[in-house]
Amino acid sequence: MSNHSLSRRQAVKLGVGSLAALQSFGQASSGLAEGAAQLKARPFLTRAEDFEDVSRGNPKPHTLTGEALVKAGLTQETWRLEVRTDETTNAVVTQKAQIERPVTLDYPALLQLGQKHRVLFLKAMQCLNIATPLGQGLWEGVPLRDVLRLCGPMSNVRRVYFWGFHNDDPKQRFQSSLSYTQVMETPPGELPVFLAYRLNGGPVSLERGGPVRMVVPWAHGFKSIKWLQQIRLTNDYQTNDTYAEKNNDPESHLKTAAYLDDVVVSGRTAQVGGWAVNGLSGLSHVETWLRPAGAAVLKDEDPAWQTAVWQPATLDPQPDWASVLPAGVSPEQVLGFDRQTGRPLSWPLRYSMVGFSTTLRDLKPGKYEVRARTVDLNGFAQPEPRDLQKSGKNGIQTRTFEIA
Ligand SMILES: Nc1nc2c(c(=O)[nH]1)N[C@H]1C(S)=C(S)[C@@H](COP(=O)(O)O)O[C@H]1N2
Ligand SMILES: [Mo]
Predict the structure, then answer these.
(1) Residue 80 bridge partners (DSSP)
(2) Of 3, 48, 110, 299, which is the most buried if we count CB atoms within 10 A?
(3) pLDDT tens profile 391-403
(4) Is the CB of 324 inside a 6 Å radius of any atom of ligand 1?
(5) Considering the entire predicted model, what is its pTM?
(6) Which SS3 state, helix, strand or coil, does residue 61 take?
(7) What is the distance in A from the centroid of ligand 1 to the CA of 1?
(8) Is the C-beta atom of 56 inside 6 A of ligand 1?
(9) What is the β-pairing status of strands 257-260 and 269-277?
(10) Where are the domains of the chain?
(11) Please, is 22 exposed, middle or buried when counting C-beta atoms within 10 Å of its C-beta (0-12, 13-18, 19+)?
(12) How far apart are the first and last CA of the chain?
């Protein structure tokens, strides 16, 4: 695992208000002091250089160049995907998976499948173990089920295992898995797993896992395998996820949670903002709690939590999709948008993140703590149940600031 604690530089890069928030501040700024500092602009789609990277490997596959890259099959010309049956037998596999034919796909063949089956999806990428989203992108690719259909009729397949290039060293393999049902059947309103070959209108960069990366819309980052090259169909019902070995929940979904930026103070006004991830349980709204700074961080069992006064924050409005989406992509083509009207089926979008902000005015001089939390569509405030760290970092975040 690379770096799980974000540097201050990274935090600052991630920790700025969104463009949409700025626009909404523009409208609501009449109450703000003239020249008040504002939250910095942050685009809805994360710029390539602002995405955070979580990659294993020594050397990391995306640092390979030249001949090594060609040998690794990580150029568009040399990339191949192999779909096979899993040949391992163990106590639970008494009847091996069978398919009519193994399949090897190259990059042009995947793009050709895309002409018929392509899907586009706006996703917040987040690591289960990092309390800041890594970035948000428009991913384009082919549903995994359409690739598996090329294998013809299959039997005794209960799970799909997959992994990418890892320096030809099996010990470095980073792998993940899904159930057959999750891959082949998508309930209404749910989202297919897909093999992504484009990100934000361009090819998937090597650092983001290109030429081809798995994208599992509902999951934390560890299911979205980078440098994808191998798929195995198995009759083993158990997960093989590398992440499960590290005491993480291999079936975790993205958590609904608020992630705070640094507070921007100007005179007696404090602007609080950040990103809220719209996870499995949906996102109703974000709330903040302001209190005088104590000597120490509040413990979970501190009685102060019982008397907390949470005030609603503002979610960014929908951006202007024509200016957010890459050239040639219109909203009605994107999953989660109405095919006729091009309007989102929900706002915020499922499994994406949305900026939030609130302005605290007329504060007396002193030191303060501010906290932010989401309330999901069940009406449950984050984290409820308490801070499930091994299924996603969603503890309530705190920032401190001072009014002079
Ligand atoms: N092949 C491969 N895929 C991988 C990883 C990896 O180390 N190797 N890391 C995973 C983890 S833990 C996360 S959180 C995401 C991070 O995606 P990003 O680096 O594009 O932000 O990639 C996932 N896919
Ligand atoms: Mo991760």
Answers:
(1) 106
(2) 110
(3) 998 999 999 999 9
(4) no
(5) 0.91
(6) helix
(7) 9
(8) yes
(9) antiparallel
(10) 8-43+255-315+348-403, 50-246
(11) buried
(12) 41
pLDDT at 294: 81
Whole-number Å distance between alpha carbons of 86 and 161: 8
**Helix (DSSP H) and strand (DSSP E) numbers for the chain:** 7, 21
Determine the distance separating the centroid of ligand 1 and the alpha carbon of 53, expressed in angstroms: 7
Q: If you measure from the C-alpha of residue 175 to the centroid of ligand 1, how many angstroms do you get, rounded to a whole number? A: 10
What is the tens place of the pLDDT at every residue in 17-49? 333 333 333 333 333 444 456 777 778 999 999
Report the CATH number of the 8-43+255-315+348-403 domain.
Answer: 2.60.40.650
DSSP states of 185-244 as a string? Answer: ---TT----EEEEEETTEEPPTTTT-S-EEE-TTB-GGGS-SSEEEEEEES--S---GGG
C-alpha angle 353-304-366 in degrees, rounded to nearest 5: 80
The residue-averaged pLDDT of 185-199 equals 95
Q: Can you tell me the distance from the alpha carbon of 345 to that of 282, in angstroms, rounded to the nearest whole number?
A: 13
Q: Give the mean pLDDT of 196-223.
A: 98
Q: Does residue 222 have its Cβ closer than 6 Å to ligand 1?
A: yes
Superfamily of domain 50-246: Oxidoreductase, molybdopterin-binding domain (3.90.420.10)
Q: Which residues surround ligand 2, an ion (CB under 5 A)?
A: 54, 127, 221-222
Q: Which two tokens stand for residue 119?
A: 């899907």
DSSP assignment of 68-121: HHHHTT-STTT-EEEEEE-----TT-SS--EES--EEEEHHHHHHHHHHH-EEE
Contact between 371 and 397 under an 8 Å Cβ cutoff? The reply is yes
* Residue appearing with tokens 């009207």: 341
What is the 128 CA–ligand 2 centroid distance (Å)? Answer: 5
CA angle 120, 16, 276 (to 5 degrees): 55
What 3-state class would DSSP assign to 162? strand
Could you tell me the CA-to-CA distances from 322 to 178, 309, 325 in Å, in that order? 34, 39, 6
